[in-house]
Amino acid sequence: MTEQTLDTSDLDQYVGKQLRSSESFEPVGNNDIRRWVQAMHYPNRLHYDRDYAAQSRQGQIIAPQSFAVAMDDGHGAVPACVGKIPNSHLIFGGDEWWFYGPTMKAGDMIRNERFGVDYVVKETAFAGPTCFQRGDNVYYNQDGDKIATQRSTGIRYNPDLAREMQSQTASETEPEWTDAQIADLEEKKFKWIQSLHDLGHGKRLFDSVEAGDELPTRVFGPHSIASLATEWRAFPQNLWGAMRLPEGGPGDLGWVDEMNGHEQDATMQRINPELTDGGYYGPSRGHLFPRYAQRIGMPRGYGYGASMGAYILDYLAGWAGEYGMITHCNSHYRGPVFTGDITVQTAEIVEKTTDEEGRSIVKVKSAMKNQEDTILATATASIALPTS
């Protein structure tokens, strides 16, 4: 039996400290936004259709609220995995977001500031002693306007112990979908897309909804290695030379040998950039290669925590419409999206209120499940809606 200890002593030096920031070398482009929403399965025309967006209140293509995380060089997780924990790996545990109003659009230069928050070690059924580490990303545009704050939770654990405990009950074999089932899924997918079309440029008014109302169900998938690779490629950080990375990489974080590598290494990117691509080498390759997924306690290829966060934000923002805005969202990830599975999102309005800024707020509870009704994530959110 693997020794049930987790050395977190190196993390103390980062608690409450400002950390290195990430920075893009080029401004946001419309195709960056289009690539993002296409990868995140979010066909809201406001974010990709030039003519449609020209008729919107913004008069142009804008990025969805979820796009902020794409402007980080580590999927938002860097301040939640700083410091060395020997023989460890990391998965995302959740994200809490606060949005302040500025939209993101082509021409913006978006940067972030990072801060270590805290960590705690708890005993879990997943991997015994497990470290839950939190860190903040604060996103700004070129004018110094604060766009959003993201508080991420990294779950750091011993993968050898996770394999021994076999807490992931999903099969190593992907489920098979018949042609008839796929056709049914496509019909369900489009029903949600049609709800976006039905709202169009209209306003979802505060007085038009009530506590107890359910949002339209969103279905997408089945997820695959191809779809997850498409998501990976939508993050500008994964383009050679797109962002200012640390010389020599992020340092020794304690990853197990087969998951180590040169991801985020500016020095190696100039020498052999292929080795810096986390889709193929390093700690991120477990998502796309089942053999490495199984080495860290996962049964098969699995999705990205940052993408799960985007699914939630996009689902709620799409319902709110272009006159609405998510002001706060707290998401908890209970299990990853696995290849072969579908994602089903639901939400219910639980309260209507007025916040301290005088905005009319709808509070919702949301859930994300797979085809077996296994809960993948839950979220609570506050959404500002117009009154007229």
CATH superfamily: Hotdog Thioesterase
The residue ranges in which pLDDT falls below 50 over 5 or more consecutive positions are none
Strand content: 15-25%
Number of helices: 8
Strand-and-helix sequence, N→C? EHHEEEEHHEHHHHEEEE
The first-level CATH class is given as Alpha Beta
Q: How much is the average pLDDT?
A: 95
Structural domain count = 1
Output the CATH topology: Thiol Ester Dehydrase, Chain A
The counted number of beta strands is 10
Label the structural class: alpha+beta
Percent in helix: 10-25%
**Major β-sheet strand ordering:** 1-3-4-5-2-7-10-9-8-6
Q: What's the main sheet like?
A: 10 strands, antiparallel
Distance between the termini: 63 Å
Tell me what the CATH architecture is: Roll
Based on CA atoms alone, the radius of gyration comes out at 20 Å
Give the overall form: globular
